[in-house]
């Protein structure tokens, strides 16, 4: 077990493409937590995760192995551009090691530095209890519950949560 | 005063470009209700309003004058694609004539026909009282209030509302 203290979180580069794909494709294919098409092509997935409207990061352990990745972007344009949004994904084999928590803490810090006033998660699948509890533990409030807004491949129609934290 | 009974709502075509621009550009430039950049170029605005991820419509009166326009799209991809989203804009000179109400009713009907289960408005600016009351009157619930999530050009930071209606 590496602790999260050994994680280094840095901006993603072109050379991280394979490592990012290895993390995000299983999550997309599973279709249990993100509103992305399960059949999404790898190129489209990378284009989404590292698009020009966001900054993308990777979390690597002491040996340089990438255990997680996240993006940070403005959640809206115009009059809503002072609220940011993030998406986080952790490598399946790295679950339970504090990677998501470390990435979220890093994103909150970078969001504050960038001048954002708040962070919003638009669509946290309610059955993703680990995520919901983690975000609540990091100070996010559930501001809204979208009834049956997500079709879970195993559980059918389940609620999604809007979560928000003022920075 | 034409009543809303005289409105015809139909899919937008290329020939409606000028009429759509005449409606949406003043709303975008005002920056009071939509999270779009106030400086958005006309081409970008039309590309947004009539993009390939949505269907766009216009409301015209008995003389063929276009009084409003709206779009209908899936609000999310993947497991969220059964919830739709709409945006509506009414010509400044046509306010108070039921155009927005007629467009919303039309969109709800088309959304049901298309198989959507619900309609979600992600970001209704709380100071847009006419809209909030109209959507509430049409059966939308306020599911969440995003604190100070919109920077209004006159009122400063104001709340935005997440509104939702099961179809």
Describe, in plain words, how this protein is organized in 3D.
The structure is a homodimer of 167-residue chains. Chain A has 167 residues and is an alpha+beta fold. Chain A has a domain at 7-117: 3-Layer(aba) Sandwich (Aminopeptidase). Chain A contains four helices and seven strands. Chain A has a seven-stranded mixed β-sheet. The longest helix of chain A has 15 residues, at 99-113. Chain A starts with 7 loop residues before the first strand and ends with a strand. The model of chain A has no long low-confidence stretch (mean pLDDT 95).
Quick structural summary:
Chain A has helices spanning 17-30, 42-49, 99-113, 129-137, and strands at 8-11, 54-60, 66-74, 83-90, 118-125, 141-152, 156-166.
Spell out the blueprint of helices and strands.
The structure is a homodimer of 167-residue chains.
Chain A: E1 8-11, H1 17-30, H2 42-49, E2 54-60, E3 66-74, E4 83-90, H3 99-113, E5 118-125, H4 129-137, E6 141-152, E7 156-166
Parallel strand pairs in A: 4-5
Antiparallel strand pairs in A: 1-2, 2-3, 3-4, 5-7, 6-7
GO molecular function, one term (chains A, B): acyltransferase activity
Organism (chains A, B): Teichococcus globiformis
Protein name (chains A, B): GNAT family N-acetyltransferase
Percent range of helical residues of chain A:
25-40%
| Global shape of chain A | globular
Indicate the mean pLDDT of chain A.
Answer: 95
- The CATH superfamily of the domain at 7-117 in chain A is Gcn5-related N-acetyltransferase (GNAT)
Amino- and carboxy-terminal Cα gap of chain A: 31 Å
CATH class of the domain at 7-117 in chain A: Alpha Beta
Characterize the biggest β-sheet of chain A: 7 strands, mixed
Largest interface: A-B, 37 and 37 residues
- % residues in beta strands of chain A: 35-45%
Tally the beta strands of chain A.
7
Structural class of chain A: alpha+beta
Enumerate the strands of the largest sheet of chain A in spatial order, edge to edge or round the barrel. 1-2-3-4-5-7-6
Task: Give me the CATH architecture of the domain at 7-117 in chain A, please.
Answer: 3-Layer(aba) Sandwich
Oligomer: homodimer
Count of helical regions of chain A: 4
Give the ordered list of helices and strands of chain A.
EHHEEEHEHEE
Low-confidence stretches of chain A: none
CATH topology of the domain at 7-117 in chain A, by name, is Aminopeptidase
Round the Cα radius of gyration of chain A to an integer and report it: 15 Å
